[in-house]
C-alpha cells in the first residue's frame, strides 16, 4: 500500500498513517518497521504492508518514498536520458545517465 504519514511521535517511537476513507481508523506504524529511515514526518509518502492485530491495523516493512521517486516513469518516457548538471563550483563534469531498463 501507499499512503501519507498523518502523525509521528519521535519521543514514543511510533506514529500513524492515513487509512483513506472517512471514519476509517488510522494505521499504526512503529519505528522498528522503518526500513530506509529512522523517523517519519507528517505529510511524507510511505509504502508498506498491512497486518492486523488485536488493536487494529499495523504497518509492516515501511519504506519512505523520496520526493525524487514520486511520479518518475522510466518505461513510457519519450526521453530515456537525463543530463545531470552539477554546480560549476564543484569542478566535476556533467554526465549522461541512461535510465532505460532494457539494457
Describe this structure in words.
- The chain is mainly β and 103 residues long.
- It has a domain at 2-67: Nucleic acid-binding proteins (OB fold (Dihydrolipoamide Acetyltransferase, E2P), Beta Barrel), CATH 2.40.50.140.
- Helices cover 0% and strands 41% of the residues.
- Strand 1 and strand 2 form a beta hairpin.
- Mean pLDDT is 77; it is low at 72-90.
Quick structural summary:
The chain has no helices and seven strands. It is mainly beta and 103 residues long. The strands form two sheets. It has a five-stranded antiparallel β-sheet, with no helix packed on it. Strands 6-7 form a two-stranded antiparallel sheet.
Topology, pairings included?
Blueprint: E1 2-9, E2 14-17, E3 27-30, E4 45-53, E5 56-64, E6 81-84, E7 95-98
Antiparallel strand pairs: 1-2, 1-4, 2-3, 4-5, 6-7
What would CATH call the class of one domain? Mainly Beta
Count of DSSP strands: 7
Strand order of the largest sheet: 3-2-1-4-5
Rg result: 18 Å
| Rounded mean pLDDT score | 77
Describe the main β-sheet briefly. 5 strands, antiparallel
Going by helix content, strand content and strand pairing, the class is mainly beta
Report the CATH topology name of one domain: OB fold (Dihydrolipoamide Acetyltransferase, E2P)
Shape: globular
CATH superfamily of one domain: Nucleic acid-binding proteins
Helix count, DSSP H or I runs of 4 or more residues:
0
Can you write the helix and strand succession as a string?
EEEEEEE
**In whole angstroms, how far apart are the ends?**
29 Å
Strand content: 35-45%
Task: Give the helix proportion (percent range).
Answer: under 10%
- At CATH level 2, the architecture of one domain is Beta Barrel
Poorly predicted regions are 72-90
